[in-house]
Specification:
The chain has 332 residues and is an alpha+beta fold. The chain has helices spanning 5-76, 143-156, 160-174, 200-206, 226-232, 238-250, 256-263; strands at 90-94, 117-125, 130-131, 136-137, 140-141, 210-211, 219-220, 275-276, 281-290, 293-304, 307-316, 327-329. The longest helix has 72 residues, at 5-76. The N and C termini lie far apart (89 Å).
Length: 332
Amino acid sequence: MTTPYFLTRSIKQKGAAMLMALLTVALVAVLSSWAMWQLWRTTEVETTERSFQQSRWLLNGALDWARVVLREDKRASELDHLGEPWAVPLKESRLSAFLASDSSGGVEDEQGLLNQVFLSGRISDLQSRINVNNLLDGGRLSPTYTRAFIKLFSVLGLPMSELDLFLQNFLASHNKSSKEGNTPIMPQRLEQLTWLGLSPQTVAQLAPHVTVLPAFTPLNLNTASAEAIFASIPLLEMSTARNWVRKRQAKHWTSLDAMRSELGVGGANINEREHQLSTKYFEVIGQVRYNQLVLIERSVVLRDGADLKILWRERRPPGAQPGCLLTIDPPC
């Protein structure tokens, strides 16, 4: 028996209507999901940006705190050594530990954020390291500091071929009369020494003993490593440098004359131009951790008497290579 035409047409229309309804529901579901995802994404971006800005404020505060510590240290003593408050690293601590209590004895924190934010940091003496720019002496390589770098490369077991290339490129980067287009640019950060021919591995091994500062700087013998002391003093033996550091741990040096007197022949080559017991340049490293966000800031500070000037600062996420990344002020 044949189905009447009007019944067949009605069934087809109902099927098409049901299909359209299903498609409409699916489309609404997709659009709703997209709208929810967009809302979630916007919320996450805003939350991350807000956390980032708050972390920046906290790092600014940490840097201000470091400057106060260094200023007070200068008022207390002309000497700088590793037994002073600035040399003690700040272990990771909750933000609430740094805030003063209100009149009721508690800290105002409606959202409990103060216990979720962690701060840590440290201040380092950059004059505990040999300054790369000391190599330049009147447009030529300084014989004194060339010998120092040869000794340092030797004691660290680094390739002399890299040192030769580095010295050649270092001098070329300062030679303003050079018109060659491939003349290396002079680095402003330690990690940029790879521009002058050093491998990243060599730079990493040099990092505890070498720095890049804008002016000639003496080595602070109260804070320098045994390797840096060994390299900076002609004819000094490494064993003697280690003994000096051990003696320094018990009591810091109070004058270069006292060092010469106590060390005898080994201290004969200590001089006021290349060696001191005080410091002007410091590195301040601060870290903020809040939930999944971790932000590190590295700053170089010049202390000239009671005045402290920030030479540059850099913010970066952990794991990122330091250098011209994320935010640097002033730019590289």
